[in-house]
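Let us work through a complete example step by step.
Step 1: write down the sequence.
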Amino acid sequence: MPTTALLGLLCRGCLSRAHNRPSRSFSSWPRKMTRWNSQESCNADTPQENPRVLITGEDDFQSVIMSRNQYGPERVILSDIKKPPSHVYTSGPFVYADVLDYKHLRELIINNRVTWLVHYSALLSAVGEANVALARKINITGLHNVLDLALENCLRLFVPSTIGAFGPSSPRDPAPDLCVQRPRTIYGVSKVHGELMGEYLHHKYGLDFRCLRYPGVISVNTPPGGGTTDYAVQIFHDALSTSHHECYLRPDTRLPMMHISDCHRATVEFMQTPECQLSLRTYNIAAMSFTPEEVAQEIRKHLPHLKVTYNPDSVRQTIADSWPVRFDDSNARRDWGWAPAFGLEELVKDMLRCVRDKRTREGFPVS
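Step 2: predict the structure and record it as tokens.
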């Protein structure tokens, strides 16, 4: 897509709807929302073909570096509460930011003239079930802070959703964009909450809210972190280290998956799409669906000695059984031209190559 088509209008209808804006945020404490109470248009001063991006909580630092290569190293600011690898500092700005600290986030946005906010901070499915109170704070209170700030400052806001936003009563094969959801994890509940709040603020106040439901995302740069689909990352590391992987899901558990490169590209293309092309605020995106046994068989084409044993974990298996086995992403394909580049064969070849290279660089043996 050409650069000149990166953005449509920011905060569509902000001027015409300004008189309807609330005098305070929807969160439970009062905040000074000057733009909410003014007649000022939300046209950004910075040309939108050169967005200034703040990213919260992204673990795949290679994706951040790709964004910096595209938009300029000083225009993409990574933030987290954890110290990143040293190469992240050399590729562009990194700042400490806690999504629960509203005042500090506001300072970052204003001082850095941010125009796009990409909000990744969240506790994932299995980890969230082990600490519901913390998940509620990060996934819901943190989201409220981000929504308030995006509306106040008229930002283009991206909040990812997930396969976990669906539940056992949802259509499973395939799951459409619009259907009954009813998730049964705090992670899924918080993501549905985010989808609905963003859509509400878009329709009522013109917030340029955008959301993609990610399938399981597979990346060599992101270690397993408590997600239900993490086996599909760990199996590559195990295949090249011990030639044995113990899977916490049944061998026939089919779930939607995606290579990180496709996930990153989908997000950028979606953010670049003019508003007039979007019929929805939340879209499914799909690439492939496979089972643990299918990915193991594909790996064995390259590493015949891989052994996989199955020891289903009741928590993660129950979560996986409540999720769709495929996504219907026909609306994304129609509205903004989404198309994946990686199938299972391409994903396995690339992951084996990348994991092998990573282990070699770090001085670990490769089987």
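Step 3: interpret the result. The chain has a mean pLDDT of 87.
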